[in-house]
Amino acid sequence: MTGYIRAPLSEHLGFDLLFLLSALPLMLSLALSACGAVEAQHQKEEQLKVAEGTMNRENIYVSASDIPYPKRVLGKLDYSETFSPDAIETRNVNEKLRKIAIERYGDEVDAIIEVHIDVDDTATQVNVAAQAVRITTPCSFCRHKSSDTDAGQVSTGH
Question: Are 87 and 118 in contact, with CB atoms under 8 Å apart?
């Protein structure tokens, strides 16, 4: 192998390996910041969704009786607290039920029906129970944009 001279690796590959190695931290930094930006965007979307549900809370219809709309029962809502005049105030009860309904069912809930407020025999405890429902036909107070079509889960009465 006399007379054979080897060229540097950079001439074979067409770039300077040292330059590539020096740029590697910058490329990694850019890649990590892009991942961080995606995660930050996802968190922002989740926060907006929560805020929208909270702002939309007042649109949840609350009734002590049933409502004459086809609906899908989402589930029972209930809570207990120490008796006070505020504990049986309709506005406070409705707000607490709306908060519980949003925590459990998010944007699915359109109404809270069959609200019952009971004070125990010693007048020290208030127990509140209700049903969270989703209206399955278009209505003036519905929070959702489209109607459900699952007729198998529609209830028009008790």
Answer: no
Model pLDDT for residues 81-116, shown as the tens digit of each residue: 999 999 999 999 999 999 999 999 998 999 999 999
For residues 25 and 63, the answer to whether their CB atoms sit within 8 Å is no
* Domain locations in the chain as residue ranges: 10-54, 60-153
In the block, residue with structure tokens 């069912």: 105
Edge-first strand order for the sheet with 61-62 is: 61-62, 111-119, 125-135, 71-82
Question: Which residues share a beta bridge with 125?
Answer: 82
Return the CATH number of 60-153, one of 3.30.1660, 1.20.1740, 3.30.70, 3.30.1760: 3.30.1660
Q: What is the pTM of this model?
A: 0.60
Q: Round to whole Å and give the CA distance between 50 and 19.
A: 47
Length of the chain in terms of residues written: 158
Residue 148: band (very low, low, confident or very high) from pLDDT cuts 50, 70, 90: very low
Report the C-alpha gap between 153 and 12 in whole angstroms.
70
- Cβ atoms of 134 and 109 within 8 Å: the answer is yes
- The reported pLDDT for the residue numbered 8 is 58
